[in-house]
Design a protein that fits this description.
Helix content is about 35%, strand content about 25%. The strands form 5 sheets. The protein has a 9-stranded antiparallel sheet. It is an alpha+beta fold and about 550 residues long. The protein has 4 domains: about 170 residues, ibrinogen binding protein from staphylococcus aureus domain (ibrinogen binding protein from staphylococcus aureus fold, Roll); about 60 residues, no CATH class; about 150 residues, no CATH class; about 120 residues, no CATH class. The chain is elongated, with a radius of gyration of 33 Å.
């Protein structure tokens, strides 16, 4: 289910992250990339394995931790990332410390300069909500080399963050260390009393104090090394101890896995919004446009179905052809059934000229019915296309959104941007793949990927899956007759990677790839199938699945 994060990192959680990171020291920094304007990935070598160290300075999702997830990079690194590469790429993180229990970590880094002298640097990771920042400081002089967010003196005369200034820590809050002081004043906010406390932790501690002592609770916090996640409706909460004041139901993970579950999808959606907001707005605008166009065309078509009244009006006016009606806006005449009928006129025209006008409109409407029907069919096809793109963007990652943008350029909806040093991209799109019970399962999440999976990658005997009634993924398994467990597994994935992911009993059709056919003249991804079977699935997603982009 889609959810919102209802809390931010506090100092005590950060202390556990620090302890976990220290276990992996020393870490060699192999590569530094930015995945958004506020998120960096340090690809590090730790414990003889390549790992991703995520540093997010997002106002809501700021954190630092190791991650098992794959991250897509910006085509062009930011200026700050280029500076970090210059000074600390190939450097070694030798120590990590936290100031009291503030939301601040200091990474001590040893790296060679241009003339191969070893220099010491300090990378300050300040995780303070909207003031989150990343600051590189010269280890010997204490001067700031640069920062992700510069703060000149005219913005803050108490603390300047810009190149050449001496780095100063955030002013201490003079709170008690909760692990050294077990006396508590319950009449005062615990957040104000103890360093590292958040309001969420305070609520949990006060709840537990009804049955146990503050000293025992803090002992439990000190020994904790897991992340406990509680979901309530569309809200998600987490801490290093179970949040029993919210619910008795919770999920428990190690820190790396837990933070990936909490943050990855949230941040991916945020990155998509920032990098592809124009695409999302364009797709929604087009969807609205075609929906309104169809409504107007349907009204016009209904009118075109009954043009005979126009002919009758023309016949009546010719019957009374000697009447002088110039200057009149309407005239009442007896029709062929002897009933009085009012006919609207053009006051500037004679009665015969008005009759001819009705005849012209009669012939135009007779012809327009066919034309309007064709326009409606075309508009409905466009509406379905943009509805599918809207659904795809709802579950897209950054690369998927970029592929949708390329597709819109390909079909002429958007103009291609001219880029310097343009490199021709492969005509083969990357698709998603995983393995299950010895089978290789492959699927796409947009039209280009789906078209490739169904008609270029898959063999005729492979089994093909798609959520019925949704613009979801096309999925194939490399077997013509897999067992029931594999069929259910594939159907579950096909249902999850569709807009039916939050529904129950989602129908999923499956058939041989050879029974899947393109709709002639339609855009990529639109198909017809035959000899299909249908299975009903309540979609769930296993976050432990190792899905790769190939």
């Amino acid at each position: 289910m889609a959810y919102n994060l209802n809390m931010a990192l506090d100092g005590i959680i950060l202390s556990k992250i620090k302890d976990d990171l220290i276990k992996h020291l020393p870490m060699r920094i192999n590569r530094i990339i930015n995945i958004s304007d506020t998120e960096l990935v340090f690809n590090v070598l730790a414990d003889r394995q390549r790992q991703n160290l995520i540093i997010s300075l997002h106002s809501l999702y700021n954190r630092i931790c190791l991650s098992d997830r794959n991250y897509n990079t910006y085509d062009n690194p930011s200026g700050f990332v280029m500076l970090l590469r210059k000074y600390i790429a190939d450097g070694i993180i030798t120590a990590i410390e936290q100031v009291d229990y503030d939301r601040l970590l200091i990474l001590h880094i040893s790296a060679q300069n241009d003339i191969y002298d070893r220099k010491n640097y300090r990378l300050y990771v300040e995780l303070m909500g909207k003031y989150a920042n990343l600051i590189l400081v010269d280890g010997e002089s204490g001067k700031i080399i640069d920062a992700l967010k510069r703060i000149p003196p005219y913005e803050n005369n108490k603390r300047t963050i810009q190149s050449g200034a001496i780095y100063e820590l955030v002013a201490p809050q003079n709170k008690k260390d909760p692990f050294k002081n077990d006396t508590v004043d319950l009449n005062e906010s615990l957040v104000k009393q103890f360093s590292g406390f958040s309001k969420l932790l305070e609520n949990e501690v006060r709840f537990r104090l009804e049955k146990t002592s503050f000293k025992d609770i803090i002992k439990t916090v000190k020994e904790a090394d897991k992340l406990y996640i509680t979901r309530i409706n569309d809200e998600i909460y987490y801490h290093i101890i179970p949040l029993t004041h919210l619910s008795e139901e919770y999920e428990c993970y190690d820190l790396k896995k837990g933070f990936d579950i909490v943050y990855y999808d949230l941040e991916e959606k945020d990155r998509i919004k920032k990098s592809s907001d124009d695409i999302i707005k364009f797709v929604k605008k087009q969807y609205k446009h075609y929906r309104e166009k169809i409504a107007k065309l349907e009204e016009m078509y209904r009118e075109s179905l009954n043009p005979e009244e126009l002919k009758e009006n023309g016949d009546l006016l010719y019957t009374y052809g000697n009447l002088q009606i110039k200057g009149l806006k309407s005239v009442k005449l007896l029709d062929f059934n002897g009933k009085e009928k009012e006919i609207i006129l053009d006051p500037k025209k004679s009665i015969k000229e008005n009759a001819n006008r009705y005849y012209q409109n009669y012939h135009k409407k007779k012809k327009s019915g066919t034309y309007i029907a064709e326009q409606m069919a075309s508009a409905k096809e466009e509406l379905a296309y943009f509805a599918s793109l809207d659904e795809q963007l709802d579950m897209a990652n950054v690369l998927d959104a970029e592929a949708i943008k390329e597709e819109l350029v390909k079909y002429g909806y958007l103009k291609a941007h001219k880029k310097q040093n343009y490199k021709r991209k492969s005509s083969t799109p990357k698709v998603y793949q995983l393995h299950f019970k010895g089978h290789t399962i492959t699927f796409g999440k947009n039209h280009l990927q789906n078209n490739y999976v169904s008609f270029k990658y898959a063999k005729p005997e492979y089994l093909w899956f798609h959520a019925q009634g949704y613009h979801g993924c096309h999925l194939v398994v490399d077997d013509s007759n897999p067992d029931e467990e594999t069929i259910r597994f594939c159907a579950n994935l096909a249902a999850y990677f569709s807009k039916g992911r939050y529904s129950s009993s989602v129908p999923v059709d499956y058939c041989a790839v050879k029974d899947v056919k393109k709709i002639k003249g339609s855009k990529s991804g639109l198909v017809t199938i035959r000899h299909q079977k249908t299975i009903y699935i309540d979609p769930v997603f296993d976050h432990n699945l190792k899905i790769s982009l190939v």
